[in-house]
Automatic annotation (TrEMBL):
PROSITE patterns in UniProt: SIGMA70_2
Transcription regulation listed as a keyword: yes
Molecular functions per Gene Ontology: DNA binding; DNA-directed RNA polymerase activity; sigma factor activity
GO BP terms, alphabetized: DNA-templated transcription initiation
InterPro entries: RNA_pol_sigma-70_dom, RNA_pol_sigma70, RNA_pol_sigma70_r2, RNA_pol_sigma70_r4, RNA_pol_sigma_FliA_WhiG, RNA_pol_sigma_r2, RNA_pol_sigma_r3/r4-like
NCBIfam families in alphabetical order: FliA_WhiG, PRK06986.1, sigma70-ECF
Protein known as: RNA polymerase sigma-28 (SigD/FliA/WhiG) subunit
Keywords noted in UniProt: DNA-binding, Sigma factor, Transcription, Transcription regulation
Domain RNA polymerase sigma-70 residues, every copy: 210-236
Keyword Transferase included in the entry's annotation: no
Length: 241
């Protein structure tokens, strides 16, 4: 039975077998999304756990998907799956308090200097303000990278799923994709990044390359890619918060 037939059978008859087959057919999408998130903070969480959280998002997407809307299921499901994973991680509060404190300190320092200088600040200026070396700042930023990614992901998910004009029960694919302000801000943020930062963000999120693969493309080390990614994510987080 093809996908369309499965969808029709499930939506018209609420057929359990059809629903189960839809879950099986789209579970690979969950694995892809979980894999992308795992590469960012795999040292703190198990890959299989991320897949498990994502399955709940997939089931939610299948149950709420409206076939009459002109939106591909994969587009709709990705948002639900990612949202389910991020929501679970937030509820687990798995990030150590010490790392959260470091993330907060860096955020406050960036905001303070940007307010005083009236422009974007350089890493060396942040390091000097914190009275640490640039190498130490890079080390701290790598530690807080997962916090910044979670915060950014939460903002994007909230922008998609919590539009002020709709409750979760009324949410449709069209409504999920209509929060233009979030995406306008994100585009502005990406445009403001340095060339290397834009390249890393593009290769990581759009071309879905790993840090190692990006390093090969750009001719830099994997650790350097991680540093650039951390800095770019922090800038985007500050803009969107």
């Amino acid at each position: 039975m093809d996908y369309k037939s499965l969808w029709l059978k499930y939506k018209s008859e609420n057929d359990f077998d059809a629903k189960s087959k839809l879950i099986e057919n789209y579970v690979e999408l969950v694995k892809i999304i979980a894999g992308r998130l795992y590469s960012s903070y795999g040292s703190n969480i198990e890959y299989d756990d991320l897949v498990g959280y994502g399955i709940f998002g997939l089931i939610d997407a299948i149950e709420k998907y409206d076939m009459s809307k002109n939106v591909k299921f994969e587009t709709y499901a990705q948002i639900r799956i990612r949202g389910a994973i991020i929501d679970k991680l937030r509820n687990l509060d798995w990030v150590p308090r010490s790392i959260r404190q470091k993330a907060k300190l860096i955020d406050e320092t960036y905001n303070k200097l940007e307010g005083l200088l009236g422009r974007g600040v350089k890493e060396i200026e942040v390091a000097n303000e914190l009275n640490i070396t640039l190498q130490d700042l890079h080390s701290i930023m790598q530690q807080v990278n997962s916090v910044n990614i979670i915060s950014l992901e939460e903002k994007l998910v909230e922008g998609n799923l919590n539009n002020a004009n709709f409750s979760n029960s009324d949410m449709t694919p069209e409504n999920i994709l209509c929060n233009q302000e979030v995406y306008d801000n994100l585009k502005t943020g990406i445009d403001s990044l340095q060339d290397k930062e834009r390249q890393v963000v593009s290769l990581y999120y759009y071309d879905e390359l790993t840090y190692k693969e990006i390093g090969v493309v750009l001719g830099i080390s994997e650790s350097r890619v991680s540093q650039i990614h951390s800095k770019a994510i922090h800038k985007l987080k500050v803009l969107l918060m």
